Amino acid sequence: MSTENAAITSSAPPTAADRVRQVVVLLGSLLAIAAAAVGSGAAGGQPVSEAAGGALSAEATVVAPGSPAFSIWSVIYAGLLLFAIVQLLPGRAADPRMRALGWWVLGSMLLNAVWIGVVQAGWLWGSVLVIVALLAVLCVILVRIVRIPAGRPLDTVATDVTIGLYLGWVSIATIADVAATLAADEVGELGLGESVWGAVLAVAGALVVVAISVFARSRPTVTIPVGLAAGWGLAWIAVARTQGPLTDVVVAVAATITAVAAVAAPIVVTLARRPR
């Protein structure tokens, strides 16, 4: 019997707690997505880029991604909605992976909605605390994904691919949020100079992807999406630094190189892991 099939057939019978989890995760996910859509300005209201005095706009810091980068949220939200639906399907109530991930995924969605609310209130340092907590929760989910295999292809898409994109994007968003908060407090580039500071942060983003790729090398279904999402964010940092009022050739080049590295790292690690 394969590991994947064992993950399906070894499940204990569903309990009342399993049924409650399924329903709460679905309803909570719908509420969290709706709150995020309203709070971000996607369904009306003030866009995040205009909140907190524009501290998170595309021109706020040298590591702020261009505005089109945020369209990735549509894909991430679609994946999270898919997860909420899949975990409710027959046979998933007592699935070991769904048991291990359900509450954590819902928690990540609620934290994302809270982050938007905190930014709209103008509490930048609060937004840093929330996004770091969100990143930590996603790392916990990553560890659980690595430890517990998915039993079905649909489950792999709903968990690995969705969380991979989510984690990759939030990793870059965390860097941008910290930079924006420091800039708003006039701490700025920590004495490194704007260009060097931006290049250092871009490299840090790529290094995060490398670390994730090595740790989760047994799950390319999650590491490759991490690299794609992080590479997407870094690429839009590069684009934003070649146009508009805050151009910076050094950061543009660094972000371009690190975007390629972020996309390539999971693929290289996966190929290197294959038996020869």
UniProtKB/TrEMBL annotation:
The chain crosses the membrane at residues 23-43, 70-89, 101-118, 124-143, 163-184, 196-215, 222-239, 251-272. Keywords: Membrane, Transmembrane, Transmembrane helix. The keyword Membrane applies. The keyword Transmembrane helix applies. This is TspO/MBR related protein. It comes from Isoptericola halotolerans.
